[in-house]
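Input record (one chain):
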Amino acid sequence: MRTQRLTVFFGLLLFLACAPSPPQWQDPAALDRIPPHLLSVAPSGQQVPPTTCFTLGFSEPLAAESLEPAGEASLAGVVLLSGRAAQAALEAVSEGALPDEGEGEVIPAAVQLDQDDTAVLLCPLEPLADESEYTLVATRRLCDLARNPLSRGADDPTTDNAAEALTTTYAGPRVVSVSPADGAVEVSPGLRAVVVEFSRPVRFESLTAESFRLVAQGGADLTLAAFDLEQGGVRVSARLPDGRLELGVEHFIRLSTEILDLEAGRALVAPFRSRFTTAAVVDETPPSFVQDPAVEADDVEATLCFATDEPATAAASYGIPGGESAVLVLEDLAVERSLRLAPLEPEQEYEVRLEVADAGGNRAPAVELTFRTGAPRGRPVLTEVMANPEGTADQESGREYLEIFNAGGAPVDLAGFFVDEKNDRSGADPLSPAKGAAGPLELQPGRFAIVVTTAYEDCYDLPADVLLLTVDDGRLGADGLSRTESVELYDADPVGGAEPVSTYGGWISASREGASVERLDPLSPDEAGNWRLRDAGGTPGAPADP
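The corresponding structure, as predicted from the sequence alone:
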């Protein structure tokens, strides 16, 4: 009996020696096996302001280091992607992998913990695009203090992604850039113009002495001589009267909410303020070229590139020898320039004369060049998008269309071309003759092609010379045209890495039912200022109205 008691006693001592100590039993991190999950996102849904920060609320405090990327090829704990991410892309991104090309771009943003580490604050470094889709993703790099990775779902950790689909609103135009830049010093007292670029075209009549002001230190308003709209109304050049600004004085550019956009008459989202200071000494030295002017030409346009040693204005006149000259004047101050000379005639000799001047009016000696345009070639460009036709939802796919114009001097064969929306690539549609017609897809110079779906209803009175094309299903793009998403034209399958030959960037919301978005100038670049929303209807197979 005594031996048995000793055996039990020493067995109990051995158990106590090997058992964990009480402090370890009481460590919450050692006992926590419950992963954190996403509780809320604000703002969210369809009415997100383009200028905002996002707050993501979680079920418990997070580890700060889990917000940081693990390396160059990985993502932070919370990311914002452009576009509506597909499920496959979400699964990759949620594991911290960079999205594949065409599956959304990562929006640069500042990310930090907030609210006792139970919330993440994500602030985009630049305003988001108006009326555009985004996807906010909380990746599984996020973990709690016990290193439990983020649950993919609040109820079942094996399903769903911690992702939120967002759509930004359009509150009004914003200022994108200003020249002279905010805070600029040593600005020439001979400044000729203040140039402001907006996010949307603005109405000329909304530019007044009250809405667009230049104020000198001390409160004196300076009278602006005139306003010029450039790039379709996106850029405004406010010309100063002849004479010099006061030396060594701070000046203020003040824009009010009386400035309205061209499309809907919406006011500037907020008053804008900028400042610059003039030089204390008059500059009498003209600019010089640090990159000599050179011309690259094709059949119907050319590009004149150069750079100066100080910000300067530029004026270029060009034409066929002995003929009339076109004049291109840029009043904004810049160091590097790329001037587009168009329209030109194929296989012709041209002369160009370039003059540059700094803000003080000091002019460099004029430069004269000659160049020759190339042989005619086809130049297909997107010129109209009907994304919001009249009719019911079931009728839309049969009434949507894209318009392509051959702006070049030679025919172009559209066989092997693809159209796409929102740069999806995987959902791009190859072009083929409509209604099963046979024959080449050759688009003649100066002619239009209309792209419809297989559900086309013959609802448009198209000119006889229009080339009618279709896609391989009842939708244009992966899921039909959107009022706010981009459209791309490719000369090869984009899945193989082809780049668009023409793009409509979704810059203008097709908010009016039955009204198309159209290109103003087929030869001008793919940019927002070259597109507008029609008041009503469309012009399929015909030029845009003046």
